Amino acid sequence: MSEQNLTIALSKGRIFDETLPLLAAAGIEPVEDPEQSRKLIIDTNHADIRLVIVRASDVPTYVRYGAADFGIAGRDVLIENGGEGLYQPLDLQIAKCRMMVAVPQGFDYAAASQPGCRLRIATKYPDIAAEHFAAKGVHVDIIKLYGSMELAPLVGLSDAIVDLVSTGNTLKANRLEAVEHICDISSRLVVNKAALKVKHARLQPIIEAFAAAIGQ
Ligand code: AMP
Fold first, then answer.
1. 3 CB contacts (<8 Å, ≥6 apart)?
2. Which of 55, 124, 151, 164 best tests ligand 1's pocket when mutated (most atoms within 8 Å of CB)?
3. Strand ranges (E), 77-198
């Protein structure tokens, strides 16, 4: 990583879309839309600033190892996959949602989640789920999934799911209902600690532009 160049790690979809106005506030515009392109490295209007498009859960890894100078990662990813070794200067208040427990409509969750009960939970977030149920004194068998958690209780793979809920439309479409709020989630700016020192003059104005754009 050259001293002049900046590499920014982003994931496609919600986070990318909601990051565009922040990048624009810092004068950075991607020359291509990653949804329309198969390119994993996207140039910007600055010859020395590029974006790398990675899976949301890989953003902290790219930044931690310095393959990207900074990135934007959901709090869900930072809690579950580790935010250690990363400087996290700003909660960007984007890609907001809630980490919830959800069950099939009509399932008596209050009775099934008494201390001492046992539940099967399908989730992409085994650590968050395990900690939540341990605090309630509920025994859980955690079934790790990588996507479409909503299907698991419908076909008898689990009693409940722990997943992100935004509008609630996905739950409703699958006849599920949210029964417990675990935590609020939004996305954070994560910066490589070495880059923050070596490239401080380049990074600081961008961090300040992001902060101003979100009113901080
Ligand atoms: P919704 O139907 O709007 O409640 O969205 C729920 C679906 O989108 C679930 O599959 C979630 O895992 C996913 N989801 C919602 N919000 C986010 C987010 N901020 N980041 C990543 N995935 C999300």
1. 198, 199
2. 164
3. 86-91, 97-104, 118-123, 139-144, 160-165, 176-185, 187-192
Whether the CB of 146 sits within 6 Å of ligand 1: no
Burial of 115 (0-12, 13-18, 19+ CB in 10 A): exposed
Helix (H, G, I), strand (E, B) or coil at 148: coil
* Closest of 10, 21, 20 to residue 56, by C-alpha: 10
Q: Write the pLDDT tens digit of every residue in 174-214.
A: 999 999 999 999 999 999 999 999 999 999 999 999 999 99
Q: What domains sit in the chain, N to C, each tagged with a CATH number?
A: 6-96+185-213 (3.40.190.10), 97-184 (3.40.190.10)
**97 touches ligand 1 (CB under 6 Å):** yes
68 lines ligand 1 (CB under 6 A): no
Does residue 74 have its Cβ closer than 6 Å to ligand 1?
A: yes
Pocket flag, ligand 1, residue 57 (CB < 6 Å): no
Instruction: Evaluate if residue 1 carries a pLDDT over 50.
Output: no
SS3 50: strand
- Tell me which residue has its CA closest to atom 23 in ligand 1: 164
Query: In 3D, which of 173, 176, 172 has the Cα closest to residue 162?
Result: 176
**pTM confidence score:** 0.94
Distance 139 CA to ligand 1 centre (A): 26
Band of pLDDT at residue 4, cut at 50, 70 and 90: confident
- Residue 66 CA to residue 70 CA, distance in Å, equals 8
